[in-house]
Amino acid sequence: MKTNGTAPIKFYNGNQIPVELHKVRIVQKLHLKPIEERLTAIEKGGYNTFLLNTEDIFLDMLTDSGTNAMSDNQASSMLRADDAYSGSQSYYRMENALREVFGKHYILPAHQGRAAENVISKVFIKEGDVIPTNYHFTTTMAHIEINGGKVLEIYTDEAIKIKSDHPFKGNIDINRLKNVIKEYGAEKIPFIRLEASTNLIGGQPFSMANMREVREIADKHNIMVVLDASLIGENAWFIKQREEEFKNTHIKDILLEMCAISDLLYFSSRKVTSTRGGGICTNDKDIYMKLRDLIPLYEGFLTYGGMSVREIEAMAVGLYETTDDTIICQSPSFINYAVNELDKAGIPVVTPAGALGCHVDAMGFLPHVPQEEYPAGALASALFIISGCRGMERGTISSVRDENGKDILADMELLRLAFPRRVFTLSQTMFLLDRLQWLYDNRGLVGGLKFVEEPPVLRFFMGRLAPVSDWPQKLAAKFKEDFGDSL
Ligand code: F0G
Prior knowledge:
This protein is an alpha/beta fold. Helix content is 40%, strand content 11%. The chain contains 20 helices and 12 strands. It has helices at residues 35-44, 72-77, 89-102, 113-124, 138-146, 174-184, 208-221, 232-242, 251-261, 269-272, 285-292, 294-298, 309-321, 325-328, 330-344, 362-365, 375-387, 426-441, 459-462, 471-483; strands at residues 106-110, 130-133, 150-153, 191-195, 224-228, 264-268, 278-282, 357-361, 392-394, 414-418, 449-453, 464-467. The strands form 4 sheets. It has a 5-stranded mixed sheet, sandwiched between helices. The protein starts with 34 loop residues before the first helix and ends with a helix. The protein binds ligand F0G. Ligand F0G binds next to helix 4, helix 5 and helix 10.
């Protein structure tokens, strides 16, 4: 089974490096500040990389959300935006794009992915319901729980293994799905949720075969299938790369088949394209009518849904670009390169390479930091201090506490280093890998973190932490010793 995600370009000398299939015409200056300033910045930011200012950041690998590079065609489309509260031509262009790319007729716009989750959860979830899913996403879980539902994660054993060569770690475990339906009864399950390129387990895709099986079971029990399509383009790319049946199928047709399997899909346009926004799509008029009235209440009128018309134009163009192999392969190719290099160097990283980012295993990297002291958060802070590269904690800080106030320890402690589409170059990627290698060789210097300010909901966004000792200063001192005045 082929598991790599590299753009289909072979090198004469056998190298496996990603090639940028675009040229850079607009650039943005970056800042690589001295380590003393980075130390102050992370302290000011409560050792939470969400609270940093981009002025202090060199490579911003926090997320791909809203940070993918726009194409020339997207940027120029924004000039023809049709400003209108209702009936805007821009909206109809986007509606057409969604109908063509996702194959769904009824469209409801939303200002971003979690807004779609709010509306769907409010309409379909009632107290005591359960939602089986391949894996939750943070905002999805919050919306399901706020509406009285519970998330049931029914991933396969392979999903949370750090090192694996399974091509589809995002698959639902079909036997567990059958058991969950038997245990809870179909009437308690408003929908089965499938997340494309499953974010929190390392951007891991599911296969079309798995999706078809889920559909078959759902049909038997009359349960809806909801697809989180925020990273659908990359999942389709992996299906083409890794699932024999689809190796000669156009991405456009893979996308259409994936969407056709779902009764309803929603997406964050910040990820699918590079513009703010999102939406809900279905071919079922009853589903559409149930959801429709909440859009003007929470999002805005049905022809803008909280987005600006400029964003709507760029989103329409971005949707068509999602069907282009040479565009959609860019982020997975760079991630594949970074993951392979780290793996070769013995640095623990989630394999096989997935979508969205390269996911470093913080428990393997920092085995001396107990999970209660948030190794992934500590690793994110340490990497920022020594390199100016900003990643995101995806571990216990992103989890919640139980009813007794104890941390529910995450299945995996990951430092996510996002590769937004077409943003970073190969030399910048090599800089990141070099600094990660130094950090790995000096990992004994990194210590844990503790909360000093902890919001009750989605604490990872605004929570503030502090180091358990003066390890950040010691780490910075060693960096100065080794690198002198180098940035
Ligand atoms: N679903 C998935 C799978 C996501 O990855 C995200 C966002 C959302 C829903 C929510 O969409 O941000 O537009 O409201 N993921 C971002 C990330 C935040 O950094 O991974 P949103």
